[in-house]
Design brief:
heterodimer; A: alpha/beta; six-stranded mixed sheet; elongated; B: alpha+beta; SH3 type barrels; five-stranded antiparallel sheet; 2 helices; 5 strands; binds guanosine-5'-triphosphate
Amino acid sequence: MSEMNVAIVGNPNSGKTTLFNRLTGANHYVGNWAGVTVEKKEGYLKHKNKRINVIDLPGKYSLSTYSLEEKIARDYILNEKPDVIINVVSASNLERNLYLTLQLIEMKLPIILAINMIDELDRKGLAIDYAELERQLKVRVVPISAAKNQGIEQLLDEVINYEGCHEFLNVSYSQIVEEAIRTIDEDTRWKAVKFLENDMEIRSEYDGIDFDLEEVVIQDRYTFITNVLKNVIHHVHGYEPITDKIDKIVLHKYLGLPIFAAVMAFVFYMTFTIGSFFVEYLDYFFSEIVSGFVSNVFTTYGVSLWLHNLIIDGVIGGVGGVLTFLPNIAILFLFISILEDSGYMGRAAYLMDKWMQRVGLNGKFFIPMLLGFGCNVPAIMSTRTLENPKDRLIAILINPFMSCSARFPVYVLFASVFFKGYEAIVMLSLYLLGIFVAVAVAYIFRKTVFKGDETHLIMEIPDYRMPQIKNLIVHVWERVKDYIVKAGTVIFAASVILWGLLNYNFSGSADIASSFGASIGKFFAPVLGLAGFGNWQSALSLLSGIFAKEIVVSNTAIIYGLGETANLTQLGNVLGKAFTPLSAYAFLVFVLLYTPCVAVIGVIKRETNSWKWTGFSVAYQLVIALTLSTLVYQIGRLFIG
Amino acid sequence: MSLSKVNVGTSVILHQINYGLNLKKKLQDMGLTPGVEFSVVSKTNSGPIIIEVRGSRLALGRGIAEKIDVEIVS
Ligand SMILES: Nc1nc2c(ncn2[C@@H]2O[C@H](COP(=O)(O)OP(=O)(O)OP(=O)(O)O)[C@@H](O)[C@H]2O)c(=O)[nH]1
C-alpha cells in the first residue's frame, strides 16, 4: 500500500482542525477564535487503499514569520515537502484567505484548494463559481463543509489522484515590481518576490541588492485577488449579518463589560451549583458504597490489615475524594468550550483590551487567562498566539495564578468546613485574588524585566456560530478523561506513596506522628507557621500537592489519619481542629498562588525552553504565596485577635 | 485623519500606516493595504476598535488605530 503525506494549511479559524478531525477521526481542539491550533498535529487515514498521513499546521495569514506558530507552519512546508498541501479557505471570506493561497501558488507548492464552510453561503446570499476560480488560479478547487461532512470524499479523491501541477499561475505585479524581479532572480520568481517582501532567510541568499517594494507587492497581490473574485463571487441576495446585530449589544460601549461580567458569573454559578448537587451523591457513592463493598470483599477473603487500610483509606479515599468533583469540572469545561466555540472569546479580549492596556498588556492576554480557569496547561500553550516573545513570557509566567479547576476541590472542601453559608463569597474572593495577582505581577514585569515594547491588539473577530454539540462533547470528554486518568495515575500513586510515608519510618512500621511523612512535614512546617498553618500535616499536604493540586484534598484523609470510610463530614471535623477560619483562608490563598503542579512546570519548561525561567516561575510563585498568605494571616489576626 | 477619530458606521480609505515594520506588514498581510476601503463597525471609549476590511472583522488596539491614516469616503 502506498503512502503519502498531506499538510493542511490555511488562515486561522478557517476550519483546518475541523477538517483534520473529519479526515482522521481524531478529536482535536476546535474553537471559534483565531489561534486555537498552536502545535502541529499528526494523524492518518486510509482512502481507497492508500495511507494518507495528515498533518494540521497552525493557522497563518501569510508565509512570512511573526509568531512562533506561523514559523512552525512555514518551516514544515519548506523543509518537509509534503506531497500535497490542502489549503483550507473560508468560503465567506475568500478575499483575505486567498492571500496566503497566492503565496503558496507562487512558491509552486502542490496545493489543492478546499473551499470550506460552503454550508454558510446560502444564508449569506453568496454563490461561488468554483470552475471559474479553478480556471483563474490554475489549481484544483474542491468545495467542502468540514463541519457538515460535505465534499470530503471528493477532496480525498483529488488528494490521491494528485499529479502535480503543470501550469502555474503567475501573479502579475505592477511595472516597478516586475522590473525588480528581473534584476533579482528571474528564474526563481518566488524567491525574488520573497526577497522583495524582506524575507530574512531569502535576503541572505542575495548579496548586494536592495529594494523597498514590500508594500507594493502586498498591495498588488490583493489587487490581483480582487480582480479574480469579480467573476467568482456572486451576490444572490442581500443579507444582514446576525453577528452584527448581536455585537451591537454584546460589544456595546457601556453594556459590554457588565454583560461579560454577568456571563462569567453565570458560568461559575452553574459550575458551583450544578456540580455541588452531585457532590453529595458521589461522596456517598465512594465513601459508603465502594468502600463498603471492597471492605466486605477483603474481609471475606481475609486480606491482611495493612493492604485493607491502604486500599480503603489511601486509594479509595484519595482517588474517590478527587473524583467527587468530576461534575464541577465537566460543567466548567462545558462552559469554557461554549465560550470558545460561539466566538465570544475574541469579544472578551476586545472588551478587556482597554483595561489590559493600563497595565501594559493587551486584550489578547485575556484568552489564556480565561482558559486558565479550566487548566493552565492548554492555557499556557495558547500563549503562542502572542506575537512578541516578551509578551509571551509574561503571559506564561502569570498564567498559573489563574485558578485552575484542580484547585477547586480544595476550596470547596475548606469553604464547606469553615465558611458554611459563605462558600460562594470565599471562592469568588480567591478567583479574584488570583486575577489580581496575575495582573499586578504582569504590571511589575512590564515595568522591570520586560521593559519597553508597547503591545497592541490585532485580532480577527470571527462570526458567531452555534457551538456544535459534537465539539462540546468532545471537549468536555477530553478534559474529563484527563481528570480521571490523573486520578487513576498521579493521584493514585501519590496516595499510595503518602500512605507508605505515613505508616513507616526507619525502624519499620510506625505511628503516624513519628513516621517519615511527619518528619518531612515537620521540616517544612516552621516557615508556614508565619501564615498560620505550621503543622506538619499542612506542609506535607502542600508538598504533595505539587504533583497535582487535587492531592491536597485527596490526601487529607490519609494525612489526618482518618480511619476507613472517611466522608466529607468526618474530614470537616479533623480539619476544624487543625485550622481556624483565618488560617484556613490563609491556607487557601497559599494553595491558590504557590508553585504550579508538575504538569504546568513541564509545559512552562517546554514553552519557554529555558530552565532559568522555569525555576524562576517555581520560586517566585512560592515567595508570593508565602508573602500573601502570611499577610492575610497576620493582618487578620490584628482584627480577630 | 487618524482612524481612532472615525465614527462607527463610517467608510474610509486607507492612506498609510505609520507603524513599525513588523506590525505594519502583519496588518498589510491581513488586508490593510493602501487604498483599500473599509468601515468601522465597533468602538469603545478610548479603547480598541473593530473594523471590517476585505470581508473580515479585525480588532485593533487604540495605539494602532491612532497610527493609521485614513480618508473618509464621502
Ligand atoms: N458552518 C461551518 N462551520 C465550520 C466548518 N468548519 C469549521 N467550522 C467552524 O469554524 C470554527 C473554526 O474551526 P477550527 O477547525 O478550529 O479552525 P482552524 O482553522 O483549525 O483554526 P485555528 O486553530 O485557529 O488555526 C469552529 O467554530 C468550527 O466549528 C464548516 O464547514 N461549516
